[in-house]
Amino acid sequence: MTAERVPLSRARVLGAAVAIADRDGIAALTMRRLAQDLGVEAMSLYHHVANKEALLDGVIEVVMAEIAEAVGEPVVEDWQAAMRARVLTARQVFLRHPWAARVLETRTSISPGVIAYYDGVLAIFRAGGFSYDLAHRALHALGSRALGFSQELFDLSDPAADAEAEAMVQELAEHFPHLAAMVAEIAHDDPDSALGWCDHQAEFEFGLDLILSGLERLRAEG
Amino acid sequence: MTAERVPLSRARVLGAAVAIADRDGIAALTMRRLAQDLGVEAMSLYHHVANKEALLDGVIEVVMAEIAEAVGEPVVEDWQAAMRARVLTARQVFLRHPWAARVLETRTSISPGVIAYYDGVLAIFRAGGFSYDLAHRALHALGSRALGFSQELFDLSDPAADAEAEAMVQELAEHFPHLAAMVAEIAHDDPDSALGWCDHQAEFEFGLDLILSGLERLRAEG
DNA sequence: ACCTGAACACCGTTCAAGT
DNA sequence: ACCTGAACACCGTTCAAGT
């Protein structure tokens, strides 16, 4: 936008890429569009990122740096409260960048930022008295939830699917009685769905607490 | 391959698409390649699927039909054992189609096959004495695990990342002492990683059972 | 009704050339 | 060292035309 004469740098390229994805979605993030926003030819980008995949790797590093700053140093007392706070803080960053979860999942190489985040998670587990074996299984049990997001495969309260889904559920109510009954019973009037897939705060916290308290039980048993 | 004179049909198109993804990965599934495998021009496909997105929708329906056949009618006694069996059976199908989980997550429209699967899940919860409210929260807690898969964001035992990751972990051991220690302690010699993301059977079952037993506790409390 | 061929508007990326 | 312009090899898709 401004600062036309600032020379291109990796940081400027990645920053502009995040801005495009935030504003217009991840599909809008093309090399040509990115170059245009930077006032440069597309090919100039290749001096700062090796290719499109490397660009996406870099964009994830930006997001993970945001998370690292937000969560700070791992707290080492009351592991369950510390984990809960860490995850919910990270989640706020993903709510700001709804495209980031999907990009993160498509990375093939290991991201140093993700590694650093998980090392902090492990620090909390260890301080809470977990063996490395239990901590390892805990990481698997949490999956992406450790980073603050969890995909739902369909969303009955998705505002985007409103008309279509409502008609569909209506139409299919006779075939799928349980789903129809559940939808009818549950008042879904809180519109705080933000991650594209259904991921309401209360429901995320329910799943998180269910896993954390299960882990605490296993830890206490030794 | 064979059957050159069989007229094109939606079923043949979707079957060929699944075969391409299974054999050469989801990136190989292009309209042109699909047409070529069917001995037809690319544009002919558009008489049987509206566009590429509709093709992917259809491909998911094929996978969900495989799952529906594999899981059968929902069992209605011992909800926990029934859910466990249903999920692990569905998981087998995803292990046969490693690309399917990612495609499923990118669907924007609701898939009838997924709806039907979840209706069966709800039938099991209800027969086990769950309220619709608890069943709803249970679906969120399980997330994609209800369908048999869970993405891990990085995989320390991924054979593909072997050399690179090992060197990296080595190099970064001083910065990430907990991860390094955990990797060193855990004997990762079972090579049954199959879904691309780390998703070993034992670790999947650990997470699944942790959630299911947590849900049982909540159900018993009323 | 079903299939075709050429064409269009996009991609990411290579390469030789400029400063 | 950094950036450019043209070009290449791909995409998904439109359209008018064939049978």
CATH superfamily of the largest domain in chain A: Tetracycline Repressor, domain 2
- Give the low-pLDDT segments of chain A: 189-198
Shape of chain A: flat
Bin the helical content of chain A.
55-70%
- CATH topology of the largest domain in chain A: the name is Tetracycline Repressor, domain 2
Question: What is the residue-averaged pLDDT of chain A?
Answer: 86
CATH level 1 class label of the largest domain in chain A:
Mainly Alpha
Work out the radius of gyration of chain A.
21 Å
Could you characterize what this model shows?
The structure is a homodimer of 222-residue chains. By secondary structure, chain A is mostly helical. Chain A has three domains: 6-49, Homeodomain-like (Arc Repressor Mutant, subunit A, Orthogonal Bundle), CATH 1.10.10.60; 64-152 and 201-221, Tetracycline Repressor, domain 2, CATH 1.10.357; 159-189, no CATH class. Chain A is 60% helix and 0% strand. The termini of chain A are far apart. Chains A and B meet through helix 5, helix 6, helix 7, helix 8 and helix 9 of A and helix 5, helix 6, helix 7, helix 8 and helix 9 of B. The structure holds a DNA duplex (19 and 19 nucleotides). Chains A, B: This is TetR family transcriptional regulator. Chains A, B: InterPro entries: Homeodomain-like_sf, HTH-type_TetR-like_transc_reg, HTH_TetR, Repressor_TetR_C, Tet_transcr_reg_TetR, Tet_transcr_reg_TetR-rel_C_sf. Chains A, B: One of its GO terms (molecular function) is transcription cis-regulatory region binding.
